[in-house]
Amino acid sequence: MVFEDLIDPANAESHPRAVFLHSVIYVSLGLFLGWWIFGEYASLVAVFLTTMAAIPLMHSIIRIEEKKDTVIGSEKNLLKEHSKALNVFMAYFIGATLTFAFWYIILPRDLSTAMFNVQESTLTALGVQVTGFTFADFNTFLSILANNLKVLLFCILFSFLYGAGAIFILTWNASVIGSAIGVTILKGMAELGLRLHENFSLNHLTVISYGLLRYTVHGIPEILAYFIAGLAGGIISVAAIRHDFRTKRYRQIITDASVLLLLSFIILVLAAFLEVYVTPVLF
Questions:
Q1: For the chain, N or C: smaller number of CB within 10 Å?
Q2: Exposure of 282 by Cβ count < 10 A (0-12 exposed, 13-18 middle, 19+ buried)?
Q3: What's the distance, CA 3 to chain centroid?
Q4: Domain coverage including residue 79
């Protein structure tokens, strides 16, 4: 597979910016191959193709992280080492999200609608295009937290069953968030009477910054929580294949995975709080 040889997993942990650039390639190829070959189904096929391109790297990194569990005894040092993998995952997600947003904005409207029709339907169902974020009460907080926990469980399950399976869910989220950013930026430009191909101005910068920040304030910690959970599930999956369940090493891996899951839950609660009580105030 060509994508397996584009970047070495060990080098990726030291150079997450390279992963960012690779995610741009993965998404761009996924979108245009999806449209070229599958036409009206491009919005879903692009997510699958992007995921397929990313899985070899992500799976290799998870195997590296599982191996660290067997040679590093201190949980503090383990978390420090795992942060390298999380930097890679976040670089991939940010690159994928921005690339989806870029193509949503830059493509002719009829083409972007065809290539992002499922994402647009999802956004409409969530009320993003019509009402934006208007959350303000504790019941809404609990509802959002429950929904995010469901996604978290899917990340754990997919990673356990498929190794790097959580990358599909997170790529899908990148496509939806990228579309939401694109919707917000295009709507802001329309309200200010701006055009994409006009000379870049302060108004353009303001609209783009608004579109990005509106979703990153709570989106970054939320996605980080999903990646941490996905890493934990992947580590357990690899360990279950490599080790006897009764060995000391396996117990150490389970302890490390439990700490990661607890950390992901705490971050997810923080992300839900930001989404309900902070984002609406700022935007």
A1: N
A2: exposed
A3: 19
A4: 2-282
Centre a 10 Å sphere on the Cβ of residue 197 and count the other Cβ atoms it contains: 6
Token pair recorded at residue 38: 């599958």
Residue 232 CA: distances (Å) to CA of 58, 86, 97, 262: 13, 11, 23, 10
Token representation of residue 275: 């989404």
Other C-beta atoms lying within 10 Å of the C-beta of residue 278: 12
pLDDT per residue over 237-249, tens digit each? 877 776 656 667 7
Measured CA angle at 94 (ends 182, 269), to 5 deg? 95
pTM of the model: 0.85
* 9-13, 89-93, 114-118: range with lowest mean pLDDT: 9-13
- How many angstroms separate the CA atoms of 100 and 41, rounded? 16
Could you give the CA distance from residue 218 to residue 255 in angstroms, rounded to a whole number?
A: 28
